[in-house]
Design brief:
The chain is an alpha+beta fold. The chain has four helices and two strands.
Length: 138
């Protein structure tokens, strides 16, 4: 479908473009229009989607309305599956070979305004055993 974005209701040009696009493409156009918004422009510089940066902004509300329209149009209104359970605590990791020392991963650094968005994973068990005991090219 076609989506009208950066729409500014204060200008005649936006209204004319919207009418022209809807007249040409008809039912392929979404009814939801994404307005021009300062918060939408700022979100990428904060490294966040506008939905988490400012959930009550016009842009956030418009994108949620668009998501509902897409769900309705394509029959996707099913609830997402629940998240998987957290992994069990790992077993004792065997001592790594002297050539490869395991280190503790850095803690997740919160994003702008204290919002965390990074994911830190543990080093896989047995990673030190994955290396050959001698140099492969010698």
């Amino acid at each position: 479908g076609f989506l009208l974005t950066m729409y500014d209701a204060r200008t005649k040009l936006s209204g004319q473009v919207a009418a022209e696009v809807r007249g040409h493409f008809g039912p392929l156009c979404y009814a939801t229009v994404i307005p021009r918004s300062v918060r939408l422009s700022e979100a990428p510089s904060f490294g966040e989607p506008v939905l988490t940066l400012d959930p009550s902004s016009r842009g956030s509300i418009s994108y949620r309305l668009l998501a509902a329209e897409v769900e309705e149009r394509y029959g996707l209104g099913q609830a997402p599956p629940p998240p998987p359970p957290p992994p069990a605590e790992p077993a004792v990791v065997p001592e790594a070979s002297p050539r490869l020392r395991q280190t503790t991963p850095a803690p997740a650094v919160p994003g702008p305004g204290g919002r965390g968005y990074g994911v830190v994973t543990r080093i896989p068990a047995g990673l030190g055993d994955a290396w050959p005991p001698r140099e492969p090219w010698s």
